[in-house]
């Protein structure tokens, strides 16, 4: 069934956007044989196959009507005002907060709820709203066909605090929500009130057009994503699991990376997994005493050797065939016009040449440290303590080492790694290693038989009890991925020339590779280095994507999230609304998910 939707959508797309040509058909249908040059293109792009744009079929006229509306200046202004209003309500969360009902700082969310009530009247009339832990929001838009698994769209209501010392550095006050006709300024405009408001604006717009879904749509908005989601998304996740059960949702889309110009091509990078998280505490204890008669090493001295060894033993990054970074590289070679020719040649040759693979690795990782970090478990020694007095031997010293755990690894593999690296050092230093005693009688926690006297003890532990395994990897050979990627491609650009606005369409990119058909926007599955509220939704569906259909024409791609002058471009923001409208319509028509 989806294939029909998919092809029909593709034909419509061709009809509407492009002169139908053999070149573009061979691009979308890789089995079609074309002239030699097209076959060459297909081979070169074989590791970065792009889904065809997916345009609603039965709701085609609705889609076209909404698309026209979205591209008008009036709609852009109206929607920008909705975001401004949400930004003007500070909903800051802090790392350490008491429970809802006790800590008054949570009350900041009440005015936001009142605002949503008046800003989105149809939603509050037609959808069923349940609040979890007072400020968690779950809206249910009941579909007519109960056999279809619901679509889940999520965002978070909270923002990171503004450091008072930086207020004078903001172009406009951080909670002004100032709209200058092009941009909406302020904390939350890019993380994640744009996600919250674009989802709601998409639903409200569909309601204004009398759309009634066949597939239920559930909207879930946590309120402490920036403080690990314990009070918000965790409670919502439990509630949804109770009501709907495991694997009950067709797919989930949450916040993620925006669209970014990459060597001259716009890359959309929905994340199909998230790295894990582990804060390792390495704590050394050793006898204290007067520092006039010191041992060869104090606790701080032991700790220093352990840190040095641990940093040197950190996992290295490699570009391995089949990894996310490798797929990214193949997409660069296939679609990025400004990629240096040597690098393109190396990436293409990397299929079969190890030497080319190593050269591509060196060039790509030097250029893009995030790409290098994405594939490995990272090690960052972030906190250190020890010693209180210049003439007293320290009895203890310690560090916290932050790790982002590679998607193909695990927290327990990381613990093994820490023991493997630190045990020989501890032995050489004549200190006892006690590894993860809280894990019970596992491989890690077996204490050494300590009948032998030692000069000190080093204890490894989970510093704050916040270990998080890497997220399950969402498949990309799925109907869900086809709908997601196809919607991204369909939502990119203007419906036809002559409209006020060309949402998202960048002026400066999209130089096609010579002689090769180019997709407008390249959709590449990626990994998220950080964590989102989706960690509480793993049981609800295996099809979880973290993605912002946001493109900044002029400003910073990520809208300067978490820092001074956070900003969201109005047209890019409306692009997000367009994406969610398309996603709801396409998901509604699909019968394969
Ligand atoms: C804020 O502006 C002051 C003065 O221009 C500058 O010294 C300081 O580094 C800025 N701080 C931040 C956080 O940008
Ligand atoms: C949109 O807003 C801008 C800036 O506030 C204003 O100059 C423009 O006239 C508005 N356009 C419409 C159609 O309302
Ligand atoms: C280890 O340290 C203890 C306590 O200082 C000491 O008695 C012992 O001889 C040391 N062992 C070695 C092999 O240095
Ligand atoms: Zn966020």
Automatic annotation (TrEMBL):
Keywords: Carboxypeptidase, Hydrolase, Metal-binding, Protease, Signal, Zinc. Gene3D superfamilies: Zn peptidases. GO terms for molecular function: carboxypeptidase activity. Residues 1-20 form the signal peptide. Residues 273-424 form the Peptidase M20 dimerisation domain. PROSITE patterns: ARGE_DAPE_CPG2_1 (PS00758), ARGE_DAPE_CPG2_2 (PS00759). The keyword Amino-acid biosynthesis does not apply. SUPFAM superfamilies: Bacterial exopeptidase dimerisation domain (SSF55031), Zn-dependent exopeptidases (SSF53187). The keyword Cell division does not apply. It holds the Pfam family Peptidase_M20. Belongs to the peptidase M20A family. This is Carboxypeptidase S. It comes from Rhodofomes roseus.
């Amino acid at each position: 069934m989806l294939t029909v939707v998919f092809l029909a959508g593709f034909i419509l797309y061709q009809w509407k956007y492009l002169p139908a040509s053999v070149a573009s058909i061979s691009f979308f249908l890789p089995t079609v044989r074309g002239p030699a040059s097209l076959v060459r293109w297909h081979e070169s792009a074989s590791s970065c196959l792009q889904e065809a744009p997916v345009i609603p079929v039965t709701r085609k006229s609705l889609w076209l009507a909404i698309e026209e509306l979205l591209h008008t200046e009036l709609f852009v202004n109206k929607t920008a005002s909705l975001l401004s209003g949400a930004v003007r309500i500070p909903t800051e969360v802090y790392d350490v907060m008491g429970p809802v009902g006790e800590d008054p700082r949570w009350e900041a969310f009440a005015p936001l709820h009142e605002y949503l009530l008046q800003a989105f009247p149809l939603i509050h009339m037609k959808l069923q709203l349940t609040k979890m832990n007072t400020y968690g929001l779950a809206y249910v838009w009941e579909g007519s066909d109960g056999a279809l698994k619901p679509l889940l769209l999520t965002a978070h209501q909270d923002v990171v605090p503004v450091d008072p010392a930086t207020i004078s550095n903001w172009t406009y006050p951080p909670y002004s929500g100032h709209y200058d006709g092009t941009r909406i300024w302020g904390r939350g405009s890019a993380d994640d009130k744009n996600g919250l408001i674009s989802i709601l604006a998409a639903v409200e717009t569909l309601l204004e057009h009398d759309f009634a879904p066949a597939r239920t749509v559930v909207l879930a908005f946590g309120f402490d994503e920036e403080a690990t989601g314990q009070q918000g998304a965790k409670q919502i996740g439990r509630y949804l699991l109770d009501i709907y059960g495991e694997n009950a949702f067709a797919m989930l889309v949450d916040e993620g990376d925006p669209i970014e110009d990459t060597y001259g091509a716009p890359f959309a990078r929905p994340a199909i997994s998230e790295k894990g998280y582990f804060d390792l505490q390495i704590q050394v204890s050793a006898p204290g005493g007067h520092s006039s008669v010191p041992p060869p090493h104090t606790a701080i001295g032991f700790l220093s050797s352990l840190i040095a060894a641990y940093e040197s033993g950190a996992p290295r990054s490699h570009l391995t065939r089949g990894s996310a970074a490798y797929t990214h590289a193949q997409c660069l070679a296939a679609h990025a016009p400004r990629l240096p020719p040597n690098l393109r040649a190396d990436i293409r040759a990397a299929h079969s040449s190890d030497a080319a693979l190593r050269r591509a690795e060196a060039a790509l990782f030097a250029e893009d440290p995030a790409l290098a970090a994405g594939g490995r478990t990272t090690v960052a020694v972030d906190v250190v303590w020890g010693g209180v007095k210049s003439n007293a031997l320290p009895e203890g010293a310690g560090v916290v080492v932050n790790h982002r755990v590679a998607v193909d690894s695990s927290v327990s593999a990381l613990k093994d790694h820490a023991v493997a690296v630190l045990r020989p050092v501890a032995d050489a230093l004549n200190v006892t290693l006690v590894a993860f005693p809280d894990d019970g009688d596992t491989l890690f926690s077996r204490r050494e038989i300590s009948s032998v006297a030692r000069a000190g003890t080093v204890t490894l532990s989970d510093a704050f009890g916040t270990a998080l395994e890497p997220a399950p990897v969402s498949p990309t050979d799925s109907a869900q991925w086809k709908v997601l990627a196809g919607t991204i491609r369909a939502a990119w650009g203007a419906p036809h020339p002559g409209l006020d606005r060309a949402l998202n369409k960048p002026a400066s990119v999209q130089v096609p590779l010579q002689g090769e058909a180019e997709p407008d926007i390249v959709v590449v599955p990626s990994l998220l280095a950080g964590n989102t509220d989706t960690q509480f939704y793993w049981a609800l569906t295996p099809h979880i994507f973290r993605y912002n259909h946001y493109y900044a024409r002029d400003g910073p791609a990520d809208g300067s999230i978490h820092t001074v002058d956070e900003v969201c471009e109005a047209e890019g923001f409306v692009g997000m609304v367009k994406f969610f409208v398309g996603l709801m319509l396409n998901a509604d028509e699909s019968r394969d998910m």
